[in-house]
Design brief:
The protein is α+β, with helices and mostly antiparallel strands. The chain contains three helices and 13 strands. It has two domains: 132 residues, Lipoprotein localisation LolA/LolB/LppX (outer membrane lipoprotein receptor (LolB), chain A), CATH 2.50.20.10; 85 residues, Clam (outer membrane lipoprotein receptor (LolB), chain A). The chain has a 13-stranded antiparallel sheet, covered by helices on one side.
Length: 246
């Protein structure tokens, strides 16, 4: 059978649609693995700045994408520093000031406590499929893991990163690596996830390395422990009164 130009176009369009649909399905399964209704955890941040290692520890709580609370417990100079997120607003409490101050909108994407993570990075708990158009562009491998490669482009204005490229484990549907881009196409950050924990129906990331490509010789490893998911969290934790308690 002779294949005409029209038939080639039809086949090409069909293949593109098939890949787009498959990309959405893959991303939905990634979201199902990582987006939770609520969580509590202990966290350790290991920050490397030009070879100098600093360690910080904090406890965290989150409820959906609207509420989050974090309190630093180590080192001594950071102990008692707290953060509260309610919807689109974040407050910071410093023991030396004894009063919460609101973090300005443009500050939310800057370094949190000297790390490679921004404030928005730490509290992110939102389905990417609601924020991005997705295309399955091929396959690749990370170590011994075969991965789908997804390219995401923002379909809403209020996103931390305009585009993402993600390597998704074919077996477990978890993101092993992600590149985060500005609208200009500049690579801003790179994430690699080396460990996951099976918690109920989730395969939840527990060891995450973030490199800020806008800084030199720096990376931060975020290690989560004592993770509890889909739990009841006392409402008082997500209040200004609890944030500013003495």
């Amino acid at each position: 059978m002779k294949i005409t130009r029209k038939m080639c176009i039809v086949i090409s369009v069909w293949v593109m649609l098939l890949f787009a649909q498959s990309g959405r399905e893959i991303l939905q399964r990634v979201d199902d693995n990582t987006v939770v209704t609520s969580s509590s955890y202990n966290a350790k941040m290991v920050i490397s700045l030009s070879g100098t290692i600093r360690e910080k520890r904090f406890t965290g709580y989150a409820e959906g994408k609207e509420r989050a609370y974090m309190e630093f417990t180590y080192p001594a100079r950071d102990k008692g520093t707290r953060f509260l997120k309610i919807e689109d607003e974040i407050w910071m409490y410093l023991p030396s000031v004894e009063k919460a101050t609101k973090i300005a909108g443009h500050m939310l994407r800057q370094s949190m406590m000297g790390s490679d993570f921004s404030y928005d990075d730490i509290v992110e708990n939102e389905e990417l499929i609601e924020l991005y158009d997705v295309e399955l562009t091929g396959t690749d491998s990370i170590g011994e893991k075969e991965c789908y490669v997804l390219e995401l482009t923002a379909k809403v204005l209020d996103v931390n990163y305009y585009a993402r490229k993600q390597w998704v484990d074919k077996d477990d549907y978890v993101t092993l690596k992600a590149e985060l881009y500005a609208k200009s196409g500049k690579l801003m950050k790179e994430i690699t996830v080396s460990e996951f924990q099976k918690i109920g129906r989730y395969r939840f990331p527990t060891s995450i390395r973030m490199e800020n490509k806008l800084r030199q010789n720096t990376y931060t490893e975020l290690i989560l422990e004592n993770i509890k998911l889909d739990i009841e969290i006392p409402t008082r934790i997500f209040t200004r009164a609890y944030l500013e308690r003495k």
